[in-house]
Design a protein that fits this description.
The chain is of the alpha+beta class. The chain contains ten helices and four strands; from the N terminus they run ααααβαβαβαβααα.
């Protein structure tokens, strides 16, 4: 009993979220080995006691799994905080840049309006065209400033993106994420520049006033199709694009989808590899002409 308890306690302290099956098997083997030694003395540990030890191991495993999830959730919160700070800095910079543009265009516009009163003829026409152009640019700068201010104030506004990377993850694996960046494609570029061999392709970029809610709804809808069931920060799903599109339609949101990924780097890489691995000798120009037009060289 002491030997079995000692073995079980040692294994239970070693159980983690990713090795429970291995630990269960080792407890069973220890149980069988100790009962085999006691067989000559008609001494045995009951199977009921083995079941209790397996249950104890299972409880410890559940605790470790929960702790692992809490760690992942904490990392996710920290990542969100970092992303929020980055977005905040981006909004502040965009607002300052737009204010600077607005000031420059307003100054140039005031100057042009002052000069137009002092000229006539062709010069006046040119200045009038310049004023109209400056007025358009000023309006754009003002809209950009208002947009940056509005996005900074509305923390739930953002874009939900659907992206794939067939060169890295294969077919029918999509990442469903959310970004509050003013330029949402910048986030996708970041993901492609990180630790994957190829760039991501965008299948949909959906603007929403409640972007976090939409993202959560999609994650819940495909919860049983997550590529990684333990790490909730990994937003990859083994699902078809049609399923994602249908799910978004059910929410009442209209979104445009690009069905075929370009995957330029991946496809070019395949072509290069195919050419490198080809054993057929390259054809001469004459051979290619003869193959295309059999009678032309006769």
């Amino acid at each position: 009993m002491r030997a079995f308890n000692g073995e079980c306690n040692s294994l239970i302290t070693k159980v983690k979220w990713n090795n429970v099956s291995q630990m269960q098997e080792r407890i069973r083997k220890s149980f069988e080995a100790i009962n085999k030694l006691g067989k000559s003395s008609t001494i045995a540990i009951e199977y009921e006691y083995l079941d209790l030890k397996i249950k104890e191991l299972t409880l410890e495993h559940e605790f470790q799994t929960k702790r692992q999830r809490e760690k992942e959730e904490l990392r996710e919160i920290q990542a969100q905080i970092r992303e929020e700070e980055k977005v905040k800095r981006e909004f502040e910079k965009a607002q300052k840049d737009a204010e600077k543009e607005e000031k420059n265009y307003q100054s140039a516009l005031d100057k042009a309006r002052k000069e137009i009163a002092e000229v006539t003829g062709e010069k006046q026409n040119k200045l009038q065209a310049q004023i109209e152009k400056l007025e358009q640019e000023l309006k754009k700068a003002q809209e950009k400033k208002e947009r940056a201010m509005s996005m900074a104030q509305q923390t739930k506004r953002g874009h939900v993106y659907i992206i794939s990377n067939i060169g890295s993850f294969g077919e029918n694996v999509y990442k469903i994420g959310m970004t509050r960046r003013l330029e949402p494609t910048d986030r996708v570029k970041e993901l492609g520049d990180a630790s994957v061999p190829f760039k991501f392709d965008i299948h949909a970029m959906i603007y929403s006033e409640e972007a976090p809610t939409l993202e959560t709804e999609l994650h819940k809808a495909f919860e049983n199709k997550k590529v990684n069931m333990l790490n909730y920060r990994k937003e990859f799903f083994n699902v078809s694009l049609s399923e994602i599109e249908n799910q978004i339609k059910e929410t009442g949101i209209k979104a445009e989808f690009t069905r075929l990924p370009e995957a330029v780097e991946y496809r070019e890489t395949l072509a290069i590899l195919q050419k490198m691995n080809s054993t057929e000798p390259e054809k001469t120009i004459e051979e290619e002409i003869e193959e295309e037009f059999p009678s032309s060289l006769n």
